[in-house]
Amino acid sequence: MIQGEHVHNINFVTPDHFFPYVFELVTLLRGRHCTLPMVFNVSGYQSVNLLKSAEEYVDIYLPDFKYADRDLAKRLSKCRDYPDVALAALSVMLSQKGFLDCFDTGDPLARKGVLVRHLILPGYVANSINALTTLFVEFGAELPLSLMSQYVPVTRRMLRLSTVLSPKKNLTRCIPTPWILVFNTSLSVPGGRPWQETAFPP
User: Fold this and answer.
1) 191 exposed, middle or buried (CB, 10 Å; 0-12, 13-18, 19+)?
2) Which candidate among 66, 107, 118, 130 keeps its CA 20 to 30 Å from the CA of 137?
3) Could you list the residue range(s) of the whole structural domain that residue 153 is in?
4) What pTM was computed for the model?
5) Chain centroid to CA 120: how far?
């Protein structure tokens, strides 16, 4: 069984369109005594009814919160209602699973909970600031967050994370330990990983 091969979890990426098969697979794995956490890696644009049907099959939600700006959501993702749908979805996920447990237990591996991700888009600083502000107002300072800056259009100058949010100076006033995925521009890795994940202490 894969859990004997140092696998930490089973991660289903954007599984919405084949949820019934995911549910069946999770049932099958648990029937074979697989105790690995089941992770649903989702866009945040999920219906409340869909999430209710998923509750018993998921241990960890990794939802995005992409936009606080409805016009930007319409222009880039063709869904102007994204902020409203995503906030409702996040509320359901959090009511089901709570905050990611490793933030409370200190364990290196999470077993249950919600970690919200936000991708910082070059040129749309206000959207990121408003998105983080919205999450803080709706869910509080302890909400586990992962901030990502790995989107780099090759034809545009990369907007560095340090100039977007000044995370140590500003962000941690409200959010104790955000996980921030930042680019290491000193690395040259064609096909590799020019980023590192770090946590800024409060």
Assistant:
1) exposed
2) 107
3) 2-199
4) 0.77
5) 12
